[in-house]
Amino acid sequence: MTGGGIAAIIAAVALLILVLFIGLVLVNASKTLSEINRSMAVITRDVDLISHEAEGIMANANELLEDVNGKVATIDPLFQAVADLSESTSDLNQATRRLAGRVNHTGKSKNTGKVATAMNVGKGAMNMYKNHKVKNK
């Protein structure tokens, strides 16, 4: 064998090894792509299920929110009535304090002052009640 023949055999063996290596890489790449395709199919199916469940949850949340809003609207007048009553009570307390202060400073006897205070408190309470009835109408 000559040097050229030996070089040709070495080149042929190197080419054969290269072809085998490329073949193995392509087979592995094909397996990897097949696995990726299967994974994508599973992921797509799972995402579809999750989106369907999310739609159901959103629908339930919307119904719950509407229900809560309706109940809050029902309760609002109650809170307004409590606020009005609190304001009326505060006004009555202030009127009673002013009246008691005036009666104490008039210098009248104790019994007369007590009777006058009771009368004025009663009048003030009746006025407050009438004002409250007028507001509610």
Task: Briefly summarize what is shown.
This is DUF948 domain-containing protein. The protein is an all-alpha fold and 137 residues long.
Question: Could you explain the architecture of this structure?
Answer:
With about 140 residues, this protein is mainly alpha-helical. It has one domain (about 5-135). The protein is about 95% helix and about 0% strand. The chain is built from two helices and no strands. Helix 1 (about 5-105) packs across helix 2 (about 110-135). The model has no long low-confidence stretch (mean pLDDT about 85).
Search tags:
single chain, 137 residues, mainly alpha
How are the SSEs placed, and which strands pair?
Elements: H1 3-105, H2 110-136
Helix pairs in contact: 1-2
How do the helices and strands follow one another from N- to C-terminus?
HH
Q: Could you tell me how far the N terminus lies from the C terminus, measured between alpha carbons in angstroms?
A: 124 Å
Structural class: mainly alpha
Mass-distribution shape: rod-shaped
- Percent of residues in helical segments? over 70%
